[in-house]
Fold:
Amino acid sequence: MKDKELKIYLASPRGFCAGVDRAIEIVKKSLEKYGSPVYVRHEIVHNKNVVESLKKIGAIFVEELDEIKDRSRPVIFSAHGVPKSVPAQADDFKMDYIDATCPLVSKVHREAENLNKKGDHILLIGHRNHPEVIGTMGQIKNGGIDLIENVDDAKNYLNKSNKPLAYVTQTTLSIDDTKEIINELKKRFPEIKEPKKDDICYATTNRQTAVKKIASLCDMFFIIGSRNSSNSVRLVEVAKKSGCEHSLLIHSESEIPYDKIDNCKTIGISSGASAPEILVEEFINNLKKKYHIKIENTEVIKENVTFKIPGKLN
Structure:
């Protein structure tokens, strides 16, 4: 079968964003400073490969702080952010904590808090039960924030608070989906306040733009990422909407669908913001065993964003 030629359009930027890089670095630096174990509340980023590699060097992952028996050890909060109740609980437990929340998520938290202080009722556009959404909603007390998941929610929303409305969004959503929801909210509530700067993060935007650029050229599109990674799942949707109906998520338990690739002349590859580049390399190396590969890199923008790690780890 090796006589078959396959052209790969490789999307760039792809893979790790600055927030993910920073969060992983925080776990490593914490282990260097405090020794092992250090605890991490929730997966530091949504990728099994990353979580397993950090477990090997002494990180222990828990879902809630009360699972931690040895409270003399530090705990790290994941890149997705946490409700205000979590640092308060850590203080009650007299636990040392390090916050690895992505600075772009923290920006949305501050935005929501400031709007709430000014007397606005907040609508959060996002996906229920995603840790980032739980964290953002947990910045506001007494039901001062409501979740809008889709256009139907926007169409049916009733402002029971009688306060002025403002909206913020989860950082990892599809730009096109939020646009539809926002348009509906503005149509129904013309006075609704919007964020000063778009909440969708630069990395989400760039990865979606790169996928859009090449999707229509591809017979199939593969996104390397985890099933619980919002930005990876959105990339699959973006590829489908942008002209490649046969778009799939390749996660830790996926089998490569060679039978389908056999019928392709061109495929696209990208990866979510929490997927390490080694997974993309492994995927391409597996394809090289079966096909003559020609790779075309398609870079839409150079990323040079970095975020500082907390001072106490330096």
The CA atoms of residues 34 and 74 lie 8 Å apart.
